[in-house]
């Protein structure tokens, strides 16, 4: 938050509004931004529905232009008022902000290209900008910390799942064969993933008794395996919640583990006021 | 429970029977009510089955009239005997009580209207009245408290899921396109929700190898993500159960929720000795 | 285990073999019984496969007769050697034992009746007899205790799920209507159950945009709700496991919480031998 | 790690590189191995896609030969440098290493045999070799320990699930019958497994009202049951994580796993003071 000495008061003020969330103006700006992002996403959604009459699509086009213009101005102001513009541009949210406006401008130059469609999808990454505003909620931080703490365990689990689906998929390819829809090993691996995650589209499903027996084994494995990521996240989350609860320390006897609504220290009996109960980290 | 001084003994007596659950009469009334609500729901269910011969539907009609009459009388008596009628009418269960009788009366005036059907569905909200009786069960309260405590975390999680399905859905729209059933972005988002929640109808499913690879990613993400709400609820529930178990009450201020190792009451500050800290149940 | 004074040594001996699991003979009998039950179930399974040539079915018939004969003898011996025959006959496993042999005898008298098929399915309850042998495993007891402790919570949850599926199902019936497969409210409720449990057959699936939006809501609700029973069982199970761990008491200082492999009391330092470490319950 | 006295320095050096992971060379070797294993799996995957032009398959063949040659050399070197070759060959990973090379050599002698396909699938077990490298990650060990600790509970649960699906499957066979796709009891059991694990392909689904009611029961049972393995793994995982966190070591006998409130070492009985109980990490 330390600003360089050359920053103008306008920059300071804009920074507070756009990046901050303490001031009234900052919170109002956040609210307007959320509404605009959601409206813009809604327009992109509706624009893709071909059953909507053609003349509506023209309105959608102009709305999209308007939103993009606003987001462009916002992006430039963010660069202008940021104390470290370079850092902002290269940050996760800086890249998202850029990617969500650039496809519209590019579509002027390459209007009908095939690859354009995928590029235009990038506009959808706007929705990720909503996540930025959730940073301020302590619950979101708790969830993020739990997920971060279980990151490596989940990764190892994913590697094990991939190995398992490869083996199950190739076995099914050998057992059922192309005549029952298992046309190649990659497709059989796709089937194994569909099955082990308990999604079960039914676009490919075993037809032979042996295949159905093997599929039953895959399903029961999946049933048991589904418990592992849940176990990981639950254990980490319980851990994080326990930490949060016990991070309030009595300033008098310097012992922790107080509830947030406690009025007296349960260890030394001193009355707990706002300056006596200290949050640890 | 404080009644206004102008209430008649009849009102008091009816209040005990209809709202209370301590007296024998009150519990009998609750039982009769549950049977009537479930019967009425059964009649509505059967009434919608077109394969049942026509003359049965006439019986269903008269049964429905009878149930509605009873529920109307009950509703009026509830208003009559409630100490604060206004509060009851505007309460969650007051509105449910009203909504579950009004469609039948409205159907006399607008018998064949199209919107009528949706209105008649409101009769089904009767089933929610059963939930009212579950309030008295301590387990239901424990569950409700856990869900309430995890409310904000689940909401944040839902927002993240929505953002994710929007991005996955639009990517799939770009990859698979209308020729494989992904006719619009909203429909693709519907597919993403069907997939990430592991429901997997199979009414829309990816046909191209790239689409299947992307779908596999969506499924594995869903598999990992399914663990988050479970983790939240489990951690909160374990927390609530632990609290309930340790319902140690301070004998001085008669407030509970103390830890077993507490030396001073956190509410009134009195020193907790073996005879001051009373275990509740 | 207290036997009546009039029991013969043969009864005692048979009781130890058939009901007990301490002696070598008792454990051998259990093993033979498991093999026979599983073989008998396998024969019933294969007997239902119509693609197996007809002359095999004759073998299956004779095998089935043989198994039934053995199970009948076993049932009679169980009655003979049980100290309280009446109690055994009326117990859960006594009824199962009876139901798994009677259909075969009945099929002689009413060979081709339609209701016979359902009756013959009763033979399958034999498989439940395997569960009896799992009683002796402490892990099975731990699981049963956890499930028993969470019984009421799960029941309340089930009632809530039923109310929810009734409401969602009737809403879908109003939105989608018979032309999209939602032919009656009971069928729509069936769809809601298929969806909320994330099974998702796809035999009925929403076709209108409004229906798909409502279905998305149902799925996301189901996604959040799936966490509740898991949370209940996990919290109870963690509780039971904690209890089991902390139920070893040092006989010297009479304080608990020891690990089963502890060699010295962590509170008073006394050496823990088999007679010092006492299991509490 | 104790090597026999007759081992040459070359054997020692190779052992460090191939089996070890402490030296720089050892870690580089592991990295090369992972890349080769994954490339080899990719080649097998692509080789099965019939839409890839024929002349590519010739390249795949030669790549496969190359990989197999490398893995063969690696296998022989592993035997050569292992201090106990016999033990390595018969170990889990030794068998995997052997099975992943032998099918390629066998395919020279029996080129077009039908059973060959299944044998060639064995090449896929190569992917399991990646798991070997995960042993060194403490998170993987934690997960493995939790799964090992819950092994017996999960097994009992699986037996209960099998009994349940047998009963539900045979009931459905009696209710729905062959005309609705439930052609035999084994197939109905397959349907019950598909349903209870919430996979729900929809290749077989109930058509009669009674069948749909029974299926609803199966699904709701499955919904409640899905919580049991999750509960088991979560409780064990939380337990293991708690143990790991409290890795307090007795300074006297240098063994860990003490509780923070322990006053005496549970292994050697020495009194634990602040300087005796050392936190490990």
TrEMBL record, chains A, B, C, D:
Can you say where in the cell this protein is located?
A: Membrane
Q: Which is an annotated GO molecular function term of this record?
A: voltage-gated potassium channel activity
| GO cellular component terms given for this protein | voltage-gated potassium channel complex
Name the SUPFAM superfamilies on file: Voltage-gated potassium channels
Keyword Lyase found: no
Give the GO terms filed under biological process for this record. Answer: action potential
- Asked if the Swiss-Prot or TrEMBL record annotates the protein with the keyword Membrane, the reply is yes
Per UniProt, the keywords (alphabetical) are: Ion channel, Ion transport, Membrane, Potassium, Potassium channel, Potassium transport, Transmembrane, Transmembrane helix, Transport
- List all membrane-crossing ranges: 31-53, 59-77, 154-175, 213-235
Residue span, Ion transport domain: 28-243
**Gene3D superfamilies xrefs:** 1.10.287.70
Q: Name one Pfam family in it.
A: Ion_trans
User: Topologically, how does it sit relative to the membrane?
Assistant: Multi-pass membrane protein
Checking PANTHER family in the record gives: POTASSIUM VOLTAGE-GATED CHANNEL PROTEIN SHAB (PTHR11537:SF254), VOLTAGE-GATED POTASSIUM CHANNEL (PTHR11537)
Per its record, how is this protein called by name?
Ion transporter
Recorded source organism is: Alginatibacterium sediminis
């Amino acid at each position: 938050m330390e600003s360089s000495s050359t920053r103008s008061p306008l920059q300071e003020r804009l920074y507070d509004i756009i990046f901050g969330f303490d001031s009234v103006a900052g919170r109002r700006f956040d609210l307007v931004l959320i509404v605009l992002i959601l409206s813009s996403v809604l327009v992109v959604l509706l624009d893709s529905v071909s059953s909507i009459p053609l003349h509506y699509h023209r309105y959608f086009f102009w709305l999209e232009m308007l939103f993009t213009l606003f987001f462009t101005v916002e992006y430039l102001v963010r660069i202008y008022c940021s104390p470290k513009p370079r850092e902002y541009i290269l940050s996760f949210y800086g890249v998202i902000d850029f990617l969500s406006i650039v496809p519209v401008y590019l579509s002027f130059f390459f209007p009908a290209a095939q690859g354009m469609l995928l590029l235009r999808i990038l506009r959808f990454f706007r929705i990720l900008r909503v996540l930025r505003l959730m940073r301020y909620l302590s619950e979101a931080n708790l969830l993020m910390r739990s997920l971060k703490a279980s990151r490596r365990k989940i990764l190892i689990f994913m590697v094990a799942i991939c190995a398992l689906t490869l083996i199950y998929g190739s076995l099914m390819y050998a057992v059922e064969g192309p005549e029952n829809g298992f046309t190649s090993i990659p497709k059989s691996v796709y089937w194994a993933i569909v099955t082990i995650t308990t999604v079960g589209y039914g676009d490919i499903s075993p037809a032979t008794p042996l295949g159905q027996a093997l599929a039953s084994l895959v399903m029961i494995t999946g049933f048991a395996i589904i418990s592992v990521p849940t176990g990981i996240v639950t254990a980490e989350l319980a851990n994080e919640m326990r930490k949060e609860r016990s991070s309030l320390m009595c300033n008098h006897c310097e012992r922790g583990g107080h509830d947030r609504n406690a009025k007296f220290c349960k260890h030394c009996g001193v009355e707990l006021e706002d300056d006596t109960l200290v949050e640890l980290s």
